[in-house]
Design a protein that fits this description.
Number of strands: 28
Number of helices: 11
Strand content: 35-45%
CATH superfamily of one domain: Trypsin-like serine proteases
CATH class of one domain: Mainly Beta
Largest sheet: 7 strands, mixed
CATH architecture of one domain: Beta Barrel
Radius of gyration: 27 Å
Shape: globular
Structural class: alpha+beta
Helix content: 10-25%
C-alpha cells in the first residue's frame, strides 16, 4: 500500500553491557515527572482550563526532553547518469572537425557523475554514540554525517544495516550524549497521543515536532517476499522524517518513522512507524554482530480462503500452507501442504502476513509451537526453527503467496497445491501460478479478462512454474510497459493469450 509514496519490550534492557544501558536515560532536564506540578503553572488566563494547560505542558515537557537525542542524518551519494544525446548536424561532413574545436556537442551519451545530498533523521540509543535510523536513509551513501541538536556535526560510520526491517545503526565519535528510552509497542492503543520528531523536507527544518494519535496498529505491508508490521499515525511525517523517533507522552520511544501513504508526495495524514519492540531487537543484533540472524520455518503460504474459514470456523488471520520447502524445519516437524496455521507460541494470527513477522522475530534453533488445523482437526506441532539463508538477507523468513508487484496489478496468486490439483482434476506434475482472486476494479479484471481459477503458465514469453517465478519476471519489467500472459482456463481446459500493463 505504500506504492503511493515512501519517505523514503519493556524498558530496562541493555544493548551491550550495563555501562551503556539503552534504557538509562540522559535527559536534558529532570525526568521526575512529565506533567508539571499544579503550582508550577501560571493560571493567570481565566479563559483556559487548567486541564488544557497541563495537556499543553506535557507536550512541551516531552519536546524539551527528546529533542537533544534527535539527530539529522546527511547522506551523500554519487549519482551516475547518462548524458543526453545531441544531434550533430555536421557529423560525417568536412565541417565536423572544424566545429569540434569550438566545443559543439558531439553526440553525448557518455556517463556523467554528480553528488546528491540525501536527508533523514535518527535518534541516539547509547551515550557513546550509537544511533538508529532507516536503512533507506543511508543505503548507497558514500559519505555520512550527523548533525546534533546543539549544532555539532560528526562523520558517521555504519555499524550494521538490515534491509528487511529498514533499520540501520550508525556510530559517531562522541560521548556523554543524551539518549532515548525504549517503550513497549505491544502496549500501544489506538487513540493514544504520540509525537514525531525529525527534519522534514529541508535541512533548515531540523528538530521539527509534530503531534497526533495512534491511528492503527498491526498495519501489515508486503514487498516481494518481505512482510512488515507498522504503527499508523496521523502525526505529520514528510520526506526527511525517515528514521526519526515516534514517542508517547511519557517520552518513551514507541516507533521509528519510516513511510507515508500519499498521492501528492507529502503529508496526507497517513504515516507509518516501525514498532519499537522490533527496533530494540534488531538494534541489539546490529550493534553486537553487525547483522541480523532470523529463523526460518520453511513454508509458502497465503491467507485461508473465506469459504474455507467459514466451513472450518477459522479465525480471519488464518494462513494456509501452499507448499513446504524440502528439508526445512517445517517438513521435519510434519507440517504438510494444505495445513492451516492458526497461531504461533500461543498467539493467534490476526493477519496471515503476521506469520512472517512472528517467525522472523525468532532466532535459528529456537523451538516454536505451531497451532494448525488439518482438515477440521486442530493440533499443535513443535518445530525447531532453521536459519534463513544468507541470500535472503533482504527477504522475510517465510515466503508468502503473491508479492507486492502482483498485488499492485490486482492479482492474488498461489502455487498449484494438492488441493487445487484435486479440485480441478489436474495431473500431479501440473505447474503454473494459480489465480486465487482478482480485484474487479483492476486492469487485470477489466481489460485482461483474468479471473479467479485461471492458471498463468507464461509471463512475458517466459515459463512460470511458481509465484516466485512470476514475481521475478514482473520485477524485470519496467513500470508502464505492457507484457503478454499465456493463461490456462481450467474450467474448459483451454488456453488464452492476454496482456497486462505494469
Amino acid at each position: 500500500m505504500f506504492v503511493g509514496g515512501i519517505l523514503f519490550a519493556t524498558s530496562g534492557a541493555n544493548l551491550l553491557g550495563s555501562e551503556h544501558g539503552v534504557a538509562k536515560v540522559s535527559w536534558a532536564g529532570d525526568r521526575s515527572a512529565v506533567m508539571p506540578a499544579d503550582d508550577a503553572t501560571d493560571w493567570t488566563n481565566p479563559g483556559v482550563a487548567p486541564s488544557a494547560r497541563e495537556f499543553e505542558a506535557a507536550f512541551v515537557s516531552v519536546a524539551d526532553r527528546i529533542n537533544p537525542a534527535v539527530v539529522q542524518v546527511r547522506a551523500e551519494r554519487v549519482v551516475r547518469q547518462q548524458a543526453p544525446q545531441f544531434s550533430q548536424p555536421f557529423q560525417g561532413s568536412p565541417f565536423e572537425d572544424f566545429f569540434r574545436q569550438f566545443g559543439m556537442p558531439q553526440g553525448g551519451g557518455q556517463q556523467q557523475e554528480y553528488r546528491s545530498q540525501g536527508l533523514g533523521s535518527g535518534v541516539i540509543l547509547r551515550s557513546d554514540g550509537y544511533l538508529v535510523t532507516n536503512n533507506h536513509v543511508i543505503e548507497g551513501a558514500e559519505n555520512l554525517s550527523v548533525l546534533l541538536f546543539d549544532g555539532k556535526e560528526y562523520d558517521a560510520e555504519v555499524v550494521g544495516a538490515d534491509a528487511f526491517t529498514d533499520l540501520a545503526i550508525l556510530r559517531i565519535d562522541a560521548k556523554d550524549l543524551p539518549i532515548i528510552q525504549f517503550g513497549d509497542s505491544d502496549q500501544l492503543k489506538v487513540g493514544q497521543w504520540v509525537m514525531a520528531f525529525g527534519s522534514p523536507l529541508a535541512a533548515e527544518l531540523a528538530n521539527t515536532v509534530t503531534t497526533g494519535i495512534v491511528s492503527a496498529v498491526g498495519r501489515y505491508s508486503s514487498s516481494g517476499t518481505s512482510v512488515q508490521n507498522y504503527i499508523q499515525t496521523d502525526a505529520a511525517i514528510n520526506p526527511g522524517n525517515s528514521g526519526g523517533p515516534l514517542v508517547n507522552l511519557n517520552g518513551d520511544l514507541v516507533g521509528i518513522n519510516t513511510a507515508i501513504f500519499t498521492r501528492t508526495g507529502g503529508y496526507q495524514g497517513i504515516g507509518f512507524a516501525i514498532p519499537v519492540n522490533t527496533v530494540q531487537r534488531i538494534s541489539e543484533q546490529l550493534i553486537e554482530n553487525g547483522s541480523v540472524k532470523r529463523a526460518r520455518l520453511g513454508v509458502n503460504y497465503g491467507p485461508a480462503a473465506p469459504a474455507l474459514r467459514q466451513a472450518l470456523d477459522l479465525p480471519a488471520g488464518a494462513a494456509q500452507v501452499a507448499s513446504v520447502v524440502e528439508g526445512s524445519a517445517a517438513e521435519k516437524a510434519g507440517i504438510k501442504e494444505g495445513d492451516v496455521i492458526l497461531g504461533v507460541n500461543g498467539k493467534e494470527l490476526d493477519n496471515a502476513l503476521a506469520l512472517s513477522t512472528i517467525i522472523g522475530s525468532l532466532k535459528p534453533g529456537e523451538k516454536a509451537e505451531i497451532l494448525i488445523n488439518r482438515e477440521g482437526e486442530e493440533k499443535t506441532i513443535r518445530v525447531e526453527l532453521g536459519a534463513a539463508d544468507e541470500v535472503e538477507a533482504d527477504a522475510t523468513a517465510e515466503s508468502k503467496q503473491g508479492g507486492s508487484v502482483s498485488e499492485a496489478l490486482g492479482l492474488q496468486l498461489s502455487n498449484v497445491t494438492a488441493d487445487v490439483a484435486r479440485r480441478y482434476d489436474l495431473a500431479e506434475d501440473t505447474r503454473g501460478v494459480f489465480i486465487t482472486n482478482v480485484d474487479q476494479g483492476s486492469y487485470a479484471f477489466r481489460e485482461a479478462n483474468l479471473r479467479t481459477g485461471m492458471l498463468i503458465i507464461e509471463a512475458d514469453r517466459k515459463k512460470v512454474d511458481s509465484v516466485a517465478d512470476f514475481e521475478k519476471v514482473l520485477v524485470s519489467i519496467k513500470d508502464g510497459e505492457t507484457f503478454l500472459l499465456r493463461v490456462r482456463v481450467l474450467e474448459n481446459d483451454s488456453t488464452m493469450l492476454t496482456a497486462l500493463e505494469k
